Amino acid sequence: MAETSPEYAIEVNDVSMIFNIASEQLNNLKEYFIKLMRHELFFKEFRALDHVDFKVSPGEVVGLVGTNGSGKSTMLKCIAGVLEPSEGSVRVRGSIAPLIELGAGFDVDLTALENIYLNGALLGYSKGFIDAHLQDIIDFAELQDFMDMPLKNYSSGMVARIAFSIATVTEPDVLIVDETLSVGDVFFQEKCERRIREFIESGKVTVLFVSHSLEQVERICQRAIWIEKGVQRMDGPVVEVCQAYRAQFG
Ligand SMILES: Nc1ncnc2c1ncn2[C@@H]1O[C@H](COP(=O)(O)OP(=O)(O)OP(=O)(O)O)[C@@H](O)[C@H]1O
Questions:
Q1: Angle value at C-alpha 205, between 107 and 227, nearest 5 degrees
Q2: Rounded to the nearest whole angstrom, what is the distance from the C-alpha of residue 75 to the centroid of ligand 1?
């Protein structure tokens, strides 16, 4: 077991994530079961993360960069506790607002209002807390007139608005932001970025941020970690890391 230290908000200790993927393509479920019964189904191991190791201090704002399929979302999911690493360990201190897969905890048959209570409960808020902050949540999402509509009739951007609004109604200790914000329109994206900035400026919130926009990473983060094909390539000041990343792929 790796040593942990209370001075860090996030500790990623030598994390590897191994997925088992089918070694050949199967066209349907029947083919899958026949192969399974005949013991002809083989899997190969795929390392989505390979010995990734970094620590984040409280109040630090860190960007994760890397090309498609490099393991950034997998890393965030391990930190958020959605996935358990195959090897190594992750430790987060304090409350965490994971803005990943926005709306994953929603029930599309329920109304937006019901989903606010449902999702709030999943985030650990009490009913009294949600009652007290309901208007703030609705106002930030700017969806007052759509509260009684079932979520299945919402657009993906509207779902993202509600989900972001609930998750950030209170200042978390650790904020994890995936690219999911990109489904919102440009005005809402700017509004989200402003709220994230307010958290950052408070100096108390630790932020881990994934974006394909290097400009956005440079604008928001102080430090960046570059993960490429599951391997940690670089960890350092944001300008240096983005420069090296651009030099390789730009
Ligand atoms: N549940 C899973 N089972 C098998 N493979 C998976 C699973 N989840 C992710 N992967 C694989 O792990 C790799 C890393 O995926 P991940 O989504 O973390 O990349 P990413 O860096 O976030 O990519 P992008 O920039 O495209 O969002 C990919 O090759 C992906 O196919």
A1: 80
A2: 9
